Every structure is written in C-alpha cells, then in structure tokens.
Amino acid sequence: MTNNFKRISKLLLDYFGISIGCMIMAVAFNSFFVPARIAPGGFSGLAAVIYHFTNFPIGITTLVLTIPLFIISIKLLGAKFGAKSFYGTIFFSLCIDFIVKSPQLTDDLFLSSVFGGILLGIGIGIIFRFGGTTGGTDLLAALMHHYFRTISVSTWLLIVDSIVVAIAGIAFQDIEVALYSILTIYINMRLMDVIQEGISNTKAFYIISKNSTEIAYRIMKDLDRGVTTLRGKGAYTNEDRDVLLCVVNRAEVFQLKDIVRSIDPNAFVILADVHEVIGEGFKNID
After folding, report:
1. CB of 260 within 8 A of CB of 218?
2. Backbone φ/ψ region at 112: left (φ over 0), alpha (ψ -120 to 50), beta
3. Distance between CA 49 and CA 36 in Å, rounded?
4. Nearest residue to 156 via CA among 128, 130, 174, 136
5. Looking at the 3D structure of the chain, how many domains does it have?
6. Cα–Cα separations (whole angstroms), residue 119 to 122, 126, 176
7. Which of 95, 174, 225, 247 is buried most, with the most CB atoms less than 10 Å from its CB?
8. Do residues 98 and 212 both lie within one domain?
C-alpha cells in the first residue's frame, strides 16, 4: 500500500512538474517570441514562423508536425519516449493556444530573445527533470540518428534548429531575427543545463604529491572532508604514485590550497568544476 502510494504520488508530481514547464514555455512564446518574430528552433519555432504568414495557431501546428513523428518513432524506436512525452506535447500545444494567454511584455528584440530564452530554458529544463519532453525535434533527431548512426543525436538537434533559424531569417527577410534566434537557443540550452544539473559551488581537487598521506590527513582533520586515494603511475618515470581526489565547497578552495602548499609546494594540483555532487556532506539524491 505504501509503495503504491509513493509511486502514484511520484507520478502525479511528475505530471504536475511537466505541466508547470509547459506553461512557462507558453509564456516565453506568447510574451516574447511571437511578438518579436523569434524562432527558437524546434517545431514550435517553425510553427511560430508559419503563424506569422497564415495566422494558424502555433500549438495546433506544433501538434500536427509532432504527432506523425510520434507514430513513426514508436514503430521504429519503441515506446521509449513514453506517455509523459506525449502528455507534454499535447499540454504544451493547449497552453500556447488556449490556456496561457500572457501579454506582450516588451518591444525590444534583444530583451525578447534573452528573457524568452531564459523562460524557455527553465520550462524545458523542468520538463526534462520530471522525465518528459515536448516531442518535436527530439523525436526527429532520434529518427535521423537511427538511419545515420555516424551523426549523434545532439548534432542532429543542432542541424534541425539551425535549419529552423535559417527558415525564419529567409521568411522574414531579416538577418537580425536569425541572429537573435541563435542567441535565444544558446541561452535556452544553458538554462536547461542549470535546471537539470543544478547550480553547484563545488570543486574537485586532484592532487599528486610525494606527501599524499600527510596531505590527506590534514584535509580530513582541518576541513572535515573525505579524501579518496587513487592509484596512478607516471608514464615518464614509471613510478607508482597516489592521486588524491577531494571535493570541496567554493569557500574551502583556498584553505585546501594552503594545506597543499604548506606540505608540498611542488605538488601537482588539478582543480576542476563539478556540476553536481550527491552524497554525504553535500546533498541527497532528489
């Protein structure tokens, strides 16, 4: 009973999250992209271009373009895109045409591309985080990859989005529209990553030193951080050497550097950005 309740609650939360993401995307289109004639890639971007010449609703056009791809994808690739993606596609189309009637917020093309891209990235990121998609070019990219294996799905996505941007620039006979559309796509992709991976203030240290044991002890004692010892070998010297791995918060970076410097000024240290850290001392799995 408890497991079923948790499963149903999780499923309802997923659909709620996908719904919120779709509504945020609809605001991006209705308040920024459509008034500014910006095509942010994808079938919805292509639908926005068609809308300006035919006045045909964007949501319905997106649906008309996406549904055949869903059918073909299920036949060729299986039902891996699932019910959540189908729901996301339908609900986004309803939101943009009927449910979310947000007003135009600016006449400035730059502001429209930036804030529209931010909202679009947040919306898509939320949808992805809850296990859905809005179909469209995700499906087309997967289908193209099915036939042309040498080109990755992400590359196909870039190709399709570039074609949509080019169509918008040619259709509107305005190079600025195409350029701002590219800016929107970039902002959108960055925000998607932030939503999915989170904003992390953590750094990873890789430390190679002859005094690795003493350095590890000081880190654990002074910073109360765990340290992992990896086994390495120098290709030139052919000597075995311990490699210390330690993940710390941004505020602890200078403290860790001071520890290493005080023990071995000649230590070889690699400092890397970490998108997300899950586990003791950081955060739990969502």
Report:
1. no
2. alpha
3. 11
4. 136
5. 2
6. 5, 11, 21
7. 95
8. no
Two tokens at 55?
A: 């006045």
Q: Determine the pLDDT at residue 195.
A: 80
Q: Whole-prediction pTM value?
A: 0.77
From CA 132, how far away is CA 126, in angstroms rounded?
A: 9
Q: Which structure tokens are listed for 172?
A: 């509107």
Could you read off the pLDDT of 25-63 as tens digits, one per residue?
999 999 999 999 999 988 999 999 999 999 999 999 999
Out of 147, 175, 197, pick the residue that ends a domain.
Answer: 197
Q: Which of 163, 197, 231 is the last residue of a domain?
A: 197
Residue position matching structure tokens 């079923």: 4
Whether residues 210 and 193 fall in one domain: no
Structural domain that includes position 209: 202-273
Give the per-residue pLDDT at 93.
Answer: 93
Closest by CA to 114, choosing from 224, 216, 28, 232, is 28
Asked whether residue 189 falls in the same domain as residue 210, the answer is no
Instruction: Look up residue 5 and give its two tokens.
Output: 């309740």
